[in-house]
Structure formats: structure tokens, C-alpha cells
Amino acid sequence: MKAPKVIFFDVNESLLDLGNMKKSIATILEGKEELLPLWFTTMLQYSSVTTLSQQYTNFDEIGAAALQMVAANNNVSLSSEKAKEAMKSFSSLPPHREVVEALNTLRSAGYKMVALSNSSSDGLATQLKNAGLTDLFDEIISVEQVGKFKPDSSVYLWASKKMDAQPEDCMMIAAHGWDVAGAMWAGWQAAFIARPGQQLYTLAPKPQINEPNLLLIAEKLVGLK
Amino acid sequence: MKAPKVIFFDVNESLLDLGNMKKSIATILEGKEELLPLWFTTMLQYSSVTTLSQQYTNFDEIGAAALQMVAANNNVSLSSEKAKEAMKSFSSLPPHREVVEALNTLRSAGYKMVALSNSSSDGLATQLKNAGLTDLFDEIISVEQVGKFKPDSSVYLWASKKMDAQPEDCMMIAAHGWDVAGAMWAGWQAAFIARPGQQLYTLAPKPQINEPNLLLIAEKLVGLK
Predict the structure, then answer these.
(1) How far apart are CA B28 and CA B79, in angstroms?
(2) Scanning every residue of chain B, which has its alpha carbon at the shortest distance from the alpha carbon of A203?
(3) What is the pLDDT of residue A120?
(4) What contacts B216, CB < 8 A, 6 or more positions away?
(5) How far is the C-alpha of A203 from the C-alpha of A194, rounded, in Å?
(6) So what's the ipTM on this one?
């Protein structure tokens, strides 16, 4: 394992804490908190469906449509307007508690740092601003620029080219098994943030780093410099 | 709306009843039946992840890996062997009760009929044989032949070429919003079987036919001949 030249960070759930958002979604789903992982997985499934079908709609709209599908399957009445309204809490999520220190640690060690998210361009800018993280990145990239969602291989290849780096010099850091898998299958290194409720995908290659929080990952990466 | 030249049928949940399988999966998940839709959605998500990443693993293996992920996130201990064992019930599902009559009705009307499934080639052949449906199709096609999962656009285009038909002369019949969406985005017509627990994807074009069971769909199609 060698030090990557560019580190890419997933944002939702990886850097930002979806806890509050989940509470507001649970309220909309009439308190059925057990439906939250189903909603989030349905949103991810349909973002992949969109890319496989050569289409693009932004992540918030897909999230709202997924919320309506899950609601309808569970006899919860939910208008399109109310579903869209619920997605607004995506824009004001706090960072997980170790994130600011971890990002500063990596930055001080001289790493080039990029946010790479499935959120829309505007949405991502707002999210990072509200979380106070904007200045910690060299570059902030939404998949909206390429019109495909992660984990499409071409997103990672496009992002590495954009940063003028070879795939093997890039590392994806994410709390999602599918993001780690997609990045590694595209030839990148990867680190998995094993947050509660998140699992690696066992049919994909194992990431170079696997730790329960970002600070522990940052310490390993600083050790490579 | 004009009569399609070739009708393609999705198999799992669309023709075959997953009820019994869900019971055996629920037993493995320690009776947590509310996790079943999450497992199925995770399996679908990771089949899309696999195709987006230019990889191929068969559907049973993806289903077993998804089952382990869902189990781990819910503090259920599940070995890889036990997960794979659970997937075996996929091969002996009964047809939904109106399916045999509906398929015979369409066949008698002179429609060319094709099964098009994300199941593996061997798995699909076994499923249709055990359900007594094999002889009702002109062709049985697994996505394994093309190494990509539905709803990748190229699967529909490849299947229509294989049947020597233009995309607009093909119709997908499925109980899944993502399959209907993918087919329509690939230029096919589509019919949605609105089975309990299934929803159309609201951000995709509306299918030409939307009925709660296959017999009602068959009657509409016979009317076009």
C-alpha cells in the first residue's frame, strides 16, 4: 500500500451525519423508523437504475420519489410536495464528530482532498457550506457534472482525470460498501468507514483500510507520508 | 398503442410467487419479516452496482451477499453457507394463480413470448421447469448471456435484436417499477403488474398498461390483435 496522490471523500453518511434527517423522514413515515434503511436503499437503487438507463435526474428528486414508493407500499399517504419538502433536510446535516479533526489532519499532512458526491452541484455546495467543511477541500465535485451516479466506473475514471491523476494514485473514502467496491473495480484504492449500519460488499475486493471512524483512517494515511 | 410483436416477461415476483421464499428468508432473519423488502431491494441495488462496475456475478450469489449484509446490520449472525442455502428456495417458486391462464391466453392469441430474467441461465431454466411454465415460452433468456443485469439499456436492446425485433415492437411485462422504467427508456412498450408491495417509478414514463394482475393485462393485449 502506497500513499495516494488524491483522496476523494464521499459525503452523505461518510462525512455528514444523517441522524437528524432520519428523524424528519421517520415523522413523515408516521414513525415507522424501520423503513429508513429501506428508503435510503431504494433511493440508491433508483439512482443506479437511472444511470443504467442512460438518464439523469438529481439525487433529491430520486430521494423524494423513493420516499413516495416506500410510503405507498406501507399505506402511508404522502404527496409529492411533502416528499420533496422532506428532502430539504439533506442540505443541513452536521459532520460526524471526528470529521473536522480528521480532515485537518490529512490536509496538514499534505494530501490533496476532493469531495465526490452523488448530491447535485448546488446541493453539495450547500451541504458542505452548512457543515463548515468547504475550505477543507481542494476541489468539490458533484456527479451532476458527468450526468452519472456512482458507482458507475466512468465516474471514478472521469474524476481521476479531472484531478490529473492515474486511477491507482486515487483513493476513495466512504461509509458505503457499494462506493468502496465501485472505486476499487475502477482501479482506485479505498478506505471503508465502518459506521453503524454499514457493511462492505463481500463479493468485491477488500479495501486497503477498514476502520470504524475517519480519524483512525487519517492516522493510517498520515503514516504513509 | 399497437400490438407488440414480442412480449418479454420478467419472472421473479412478476410470474412467480415469492411468498414461500420470503417465509424461509424471514426464518433465517430470526423472524424479522419487516427486513424482507430491505433484503430484496439490497439484492437489486447490488445487481445494479455490479453492472455499473462492469462486473458480473450471478443473481443467487448477489442475493446471498445482500442477505448477509442485511443480517449483519440487524445483529443476526449468518454464515455464507447458510445464506447460500437460503437462496435455493428461489428455484422452486409457484406461479401466481392467474399466470398459467394468462400466458395461455396470450399464446393462443398468437403472441411471441419470451422470458427475460436477471436469474442465472441454469437458475431460470430450473425455476420455469419447477413452475411448469417452460413450454409456454418461445424463448427463455437469462441476462447471464450478456453479462449485465436489467435495467441496463443494453440488455433490452440486445434482447430485442436476439428476437429480430425493433425496440418499439417489444413489450416488457413486469411487476417492478425499475424494469418497466428501464424497458421504456430503451424504447420498448411496457405493462406493469401492480402486485401488492410494488410501485411504478414516478420519474419514468408511464407504461401503456397498468393492471393488478397478468390476466387483465392479457385481456387488453388480446384486444389489440
Answers:
(1) 11
(2) B65
(3) 96
(4) none
(5) 17
(6) 0.97
Rounded Cα distance between B7 and B190, Å, is: 9
- DSSP string of A7-68, one letter each residue: EEE--BTTTB--HHHHHHHHHHTTT-GGGHHHHHHHHHHHHHHHHHTT----HHHHHHHHHH
Give the count of beta carbons closer than 10 Å to the beta carbon of residue A66: 27
Interface of B with A (CB under 8 A): 34, 37-38, 41-42, 44-46, 48-55, 57, 61-62, 65, 68-69, 72-73, 80, 149, 151-153, 177-178, 181-182, 185-186, 197-199, 201-203
Distance between CA atoms of residues B179 and A170, nearest Å = 34
Cβ B201–A49 below 8 Å, yes or no? Answer: yes
User: Would you say how long chain B is, in residues?
Assistant: 225
Write out chain A residues lying below 8 Å of B80, CB-based: 202
Residue B27 to residue A9: CA distance in whole angstroms: 38
pLDDT at B22: 84
Residue (of B154, B87, B166, B153) closest to B122 by Cα position:
B87
Helix axes A19-28, A59-73, angle to 10 degrees: 40
Structure confidence by residue, pLDDT tens digits, A33-51: 889 999 999 999 999 999 9
- Asked whether A23 and A86 are in contact (CB, 8 A), the reply is no
Distance between first and last Cα of chain A: 11
- pLDDT surpassing 90 at residue A160: yes
Give the whole-angstrom CA distance, residue A132 versus residue A21.
18
* Residues forming beta bridges with residue A139, ordered by sequence position: A114
Q: Distance between CA atoms of A34 and A39, rounded to whole angstroms?
A: 10
- Give pTM, 2 decimals: 0.97
CA torsion through residues B141, B147, B151, B152, sign = negative
What's the CA dihedral at B52, A205, A168, A214 to 10 degrees? 100
Distance (Å) from the C-alpha of residue A225 to the closest C-alpha of chain B? 30
Domains in chain A: ranges and CATH: 6-17+93-222 (3.40.50.1000), 19-90 (1.10.150.240)
